[in-house]
């Protein structure tokens, strides 16, 4: 924690208005000012509030600009860090002196310090009561959210609810996590009655009423698991229902568009309830920026097309979690690579057998605006903290824990799955083409034409030949809104006699089947899997595994199956995949200590309230 005496040294940014969180970050920091003269006008209060928000995306990369968005969440059963020899939280070989542990801890407590200062000076402000109430709500929520991150990763933590007034004000012991959760829920509940709705801001960078409710549902689910107290499930359900019943939110019919929008800074208030907004102004100056966009993605060294390192690699076991026709799979993990790591040379389509080594690619720099795509390491891609899909899944989970499987909670999951399978976006599609006659004499791949069936967009497919015969037909586009089975015609390629038939999907194909909700335990696992498919790579998975108490067993299973299922490097090296040994390394490093981060060595040294003996077990 950083000590302050008499003055505050923080990022003071003057708002030009109150309708956009990004406008909090458009001015350069000013000099330190005395608190007794600063927290007075509405503009000054909003500037102080901007400083509280700023720690969410601090450019030291220790919060959501990189560490909390990627490194802190890996390696999990979705992806791992390709550079397995690095010292990193994702490789499970860092120590209590690791810089990102220290800086993240400090940033979170800096946000709390700024929140405490603002809350203490609000009552004396001359700003209108409505302004003071709104700012109080946002500030209480943000302080509570910072504590939620702390308790999620560190467990028992110092609970500091007033600003620092003296250099001797440094003795803060660890407080039991049950008490920390209680304070978080208390502050967020108060905030829920004070903050504006998303329609007032027309912006999802500022926390809204439904945003508070959705995060409260998450906090209560975590409390239920981490504290072993099932009474929190009812609270989680109540908060999630408030979001659903508000009528303000719905699913974007196109899954991939969610992340294209975030790459292009396009607001989607229906689906994306709360985001961290990274921002570059018209003069090309980054007032805050992210590094996750260049760290992940399809490996590309040509900055003209969006530099991406492809550092986080998806597991083949994660690929296998997706069903046939699930559109989320090939967006979350790219089904192609760039020739020679150079996007200008074109995309190389992934062979269907290459299920290991695909990069995490939800946010693709090729979709960024032209004025930012050429910046090598930095970007303005927004980071999702709460999506409506997450709320639906949390609601289904909480209700299942209370009532077991019901038509209602199954319906929440089916809404997610129907979007995933393109029901709203594409309707019925061609989902399979079966070769009925292989033909003879083919020297090159023939042309596959799919016609009829009443489609609004015809399906397309390509053929593979060997020894003069058609050996496979691969669908490249399933088309859209078929009303009947189309006709498949095969022409060219120097051969004759090849025939094939198509089948089309049914809208009910996306829905859960009875075996997926036959009991509370079975449906619990179904929801766990659906969360991974829907929210993969968005920073939730490791914390979900923590709260379910399955992290260590999940990792142990990966250590066993990766050497058996993963290919050697030579058979899947087109992405920079380096083989089963490096894929297994992060997981082999895991021990019981890794369900919590270590209290930073700097905190143990400077805070007499936490002796070295109070360090988290194993660290």
Features:
Serine Threonine Protein Phosphatase 5, Tetratricopeptide repeat, 21 helices, four-stranded antiparallel sheet, alpha+beta, two-stranded antiparallel sheet, 619 residues, 11% strand
Task: Report on the architecture of this protein.
The chain is α+β, with helices and mostly antiparallel strands and 619 residues long. It contains 21 helices and 14 strands. It has helices spanning 35-38, 42-54, 99-121, 129-154, 177-192, 198-201, 209-226, 232-245, 255-264, 292-295, 316-319, 329-332, 370-373, 388-403, 407-420, 423-426, 520-535, 541-548, 551-565, 580-588, 601-606; strands at 79-81, 272-276, 279-280, 286-288, 312-314, 336-338, 347-349, 383-387, 430-437, 447-451, 460-466, 469-477, 487-491, 499-504. The protein has a four-stranded antiparallel beta sheet, with no helix packed on it. Helix 7 runs antiparallel to helix 8 (232-245), helix 7 crosses helix 18 and helix 14 packs antiparallel against helix 17. The longest helix has 26 residues, at 129-154. Mean pLDDT is 89; it is low at 1-31.
């Amino acid at each position: 924690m950083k000590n302050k005496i008499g003055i505050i040294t923080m990022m003071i940014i003057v708002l030009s208005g109150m309708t956009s969180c990004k406008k909090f970050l458009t001015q350069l920091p000013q000099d330190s000012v005395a608190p007794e003269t600063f927290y007075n006008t509405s503009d000054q209060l909003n500037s102080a509030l901007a400083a509280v928000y700023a720690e969410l995306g601090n450019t030291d990369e220790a919060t959501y600009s990189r560490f909390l968005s990627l490194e802190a969440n890996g390696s999990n059963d979705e992806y791992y860090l390709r550079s397995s020899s690095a010292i990193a939280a994702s490789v499970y070989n860092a120590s209590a002196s690791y810089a990102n542990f220290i800086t993240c801890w400090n940033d979170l407590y800096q946000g709390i310090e700024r929140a405490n200062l603002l809350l203490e000076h609000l009552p004396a402000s001359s700003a209108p009561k409505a302004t003071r109430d709104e700012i109080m709500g946002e500030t209480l929520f943000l302080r509570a959210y910072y504590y939620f991150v702390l308790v999620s990763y560190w467990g028992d933590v110092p609970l500091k609810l007033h600003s620092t007034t003296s250099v001797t004000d440094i003795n803060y012991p660890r407080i039991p996590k049950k008490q920390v959760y209680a304070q978080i829920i208390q502050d967020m509940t108060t905030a829920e009655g004070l903050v504006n709705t998303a329609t007032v801001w027309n912006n999802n960078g500022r926390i809204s009423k439904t945003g508070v409710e959705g995060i409260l549902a998450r906090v209560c689910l975590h409390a239920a698991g981490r504290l072993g107290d099932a009474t929190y499930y009812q609270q989680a359900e109540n908060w999630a229902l408030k979001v659903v019943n508000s009528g303000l939110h719905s699913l974007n019919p196109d899954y991939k568009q969610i992340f294209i929008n975030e790459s292009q800074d396009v607001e989607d208030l229906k689906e994306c309830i709360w985001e961290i907004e990274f921002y570059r102004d018209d003069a090309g100056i980054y007032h805050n920026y992210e590094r996750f966009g260049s760290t992940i993605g399809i490996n590309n060294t040509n900055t003209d097309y969006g530099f991406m390192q492809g550092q986080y690699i998806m597991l083949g076991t994660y690929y296998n979690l997706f069903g046939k026709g699930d559109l989320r799979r090939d967006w979350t993990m790219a089904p192609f690579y760039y020739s020679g790591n150079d996007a200008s040379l074109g995309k190389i389509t992934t062979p269907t057998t290459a299920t290991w080594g695909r990069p995490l690619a939800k946010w693709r720099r090729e979709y960024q605006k032209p004025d930012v795509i050429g910046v090598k390491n930095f970007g303005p891609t927004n980071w999702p903290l709460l999506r409506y899909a997450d709320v639906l899944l949390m609601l289904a989970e909480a209700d299942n824990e209370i009532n077991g499987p019901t038509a209602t909670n199954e319906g929440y999951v089916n809404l997610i799955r129907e979007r995933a399978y393109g029901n709203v976006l594409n309707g019925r599609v061609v989902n399979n083409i079966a070769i009925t006659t292989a033909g003879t004499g083919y020297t090159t791949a023939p042309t596959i034409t799919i016609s009829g069936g009443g489609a609004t967009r015809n399906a397309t497919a390509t053929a593979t030949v060997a020894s003069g015969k058609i050996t496979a037909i691969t669908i490249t586009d399933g088309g859209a809104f078929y009303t009947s089975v189309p006709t498949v015609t095969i022409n060219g390629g120097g051969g004759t006699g090849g025939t094939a038939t198509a089948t089309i999907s049914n809208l009910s194909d996306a829905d859960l089947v009875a075996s997926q909700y036959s009991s509370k335990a079975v449906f619990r696992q179904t929801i766990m899997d659906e969360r991974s498919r829907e929210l993969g790579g968005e920073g939730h998975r490791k914390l979900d595994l923590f709260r379910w108490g399955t992290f260590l067993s999940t990792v142990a299973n990966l250590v066993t199956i990766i050497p058996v299922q993963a290919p050697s490097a030579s058979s899947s090296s087109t992405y920079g995949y380096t083989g089963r040994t490096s894929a297994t390394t992060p997981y082999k490093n895991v021990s019981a200590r890794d369900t919590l981060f270590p209290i930073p060595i700097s905190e143990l040294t400077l805070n007499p309230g936490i002796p070295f003996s109070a360090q988290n077990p194993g660290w």
